[in-house]
């Protein structure tokens, strides 16, 4: 097991959770030798103050860690200056997150996304190495000489281009599948939220599947989509990569094709852990909102699901629900805040909120369907019920049947193939 010393610098601009940082270190497989903390504004040369660097130098000599890991983002210059002082590998929180991603990536797409994010992270470090070499500093990069550093820089640029091409092909294939799902009348529900909130467990609870779900950070890197039924309607639910506070643009960009499932979703279910203290829930809610804002997904209908209510009292869960509703109203297109336990199958509030959200989707409209073949009536009714609600059925002397329905407009193409006549009703009728 690799051994690490963690460093946390707290300031007005950066509020960092020590507990979360330690969870990240353990998730990456590190034994934590010590955590060094400092309260001060960022020092331009080292991030932490020079006095704290000396303290850290003594700890490194004493404990002999494999790495020193900063919870703060380091500039390339700061990383080099720290390495020259400490003579041990220096990484920051985002390189730590990428190490976890490397361990969790299974599919070709996830591996490509992680590689792209790693290369985007390394690019400014290599640029800094080239700058220092020109200034006469022979520190190099990963033990490379001047020529090797220049060649590696060219390799990074080339490889990033190739990865983006491969990810575009995968994205195109996903777009085709998504379009087919829309034509088949499916509604897409995306599970989003902070890492380790219980999204995969919720997917399993809704669909009866057995997708890997563990009590650890970033279990899910590969997008998983499954079918489930809601009151007879067929829906698709997608599990997505978890968020984390201040998710940097290079990770969002690398995983954009995966996160796009959230953007394209009809409904977003934002999952939060109700067993945490309110300040943590609030912090993670706003961290999730920042990512959704960057993805331009805040206009989507959103259900906020307070998960793990089996771990709190009913009064505590209700208080947190009210507080969340208060801060969410006006910030998102809120459908409802619901209390659930994915582990124990307590999902009634979520089902009700999803039914409510479906009725508000633009793709749901009122139609009149005329079926001229009596033998097709049962099949047509079954199809309509799978993507909407039948409002009225009129049998006209056994020759033809008129069905008034509120349904997903994507089903028009499928129904037309069966030889029925479909007319969109201009006046919205009440069910």
From TrEMBL:
Its main location: cytoplasm. PROSITE patterns: G_HFLX (PS51705). GO terms for molecular function: GTP binding; GTPase activity; metal ion binding; ribosome binding. Its cofactor is Mg(2+). GO terms for cellular component: cytoplasm. Keywords: Cytoplasm, GTP-binding, Magnesium, Metal-binding, Nucleotide-binding. GTP binds at residues 193-200, 218-222, 239-242, 307-310, 341-343. Mg(2+) binds at residues 200, 220. Residues 187-362 form the Hflx-type G domain. It is found in: Cytoplasm. Monomer. Associates with the 50S ribosomal subunit. HAMAP family: GTPase_HflX. Belongs to the TRAFAC class OBG-HflX-like GTPase superfamily. HflX GTPase family. GTPase that associates with the 50S ribosomal subunit and may have a role during protein synthesis or ribosome biogenesis. This is GTPase HflX. The gene is hflX.
